[in-house]
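cron nightly-structures :: item 1 of 1
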Amino acid sequence: MTTRWSVVLLAQRDIAPGAEAALETLCRGYWYPIYAYARRAGRTPHDAEDLTQEFFARLLEKDWLLAASPEKGRFRTFLLVALKRFMANDWRRSTAQKRGGGQSALPLDTTDAERRYAGEPVELLAADEIYERRWAMTVLDQALDQLGAEFSAEGKGAEFESLKCWLAAERGSIPYGEVASALGNSEGAARVAVHRFRKRFRQLFKMAIARTVAEGEDVDEELRRLVAVLSRA
């Protein structure tokens, strides 16, 4: 399986067409965990925005990929190590030039970021834990968004809204009679619908994880790690 991250790793040897686009796509999807880390590390909202923009600008422009290796080939790990080095050694604010010389590397919705950050249990979690929590939630949200898009494409948006609230429910706690009433079908059909919905979500969640690990890496190991993080949330 060739994933976005494995394409980026191959770019170290200049043999991966599309590596730059693959890296940018990953960065666009996972900027908020970086922002949340910066905020938990004590940066103000304005400084966290500047830091996040400049970090990604440099990541996309410099040869930072030389620090990545397939042996520790999770994009999650690489990004956090690169961020810590950047914050310790490289970030120099300038009143004349900010955010990569005036060029926004990524469109950041910092208003939404602050709303999300306000809901973080920052008094209970360290910066690294906030980062992992938000990373796991980002992967989960991506899978849910893709599942919603699939249902919408089939004209089943209302069915998606009815089923998504039962994703995390224990099997014995799902009121299939209520689900059937909401879907307008039988209880047996509701059971099948919930089962298929949850199964497809698990598939998409695993696929979202696979896009952030190196080729050949044990996706199931990363899956277990992120599920453990979510279970502590």
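cron nightly-structures :: done
Residues 4-91+125-232 form one domain.
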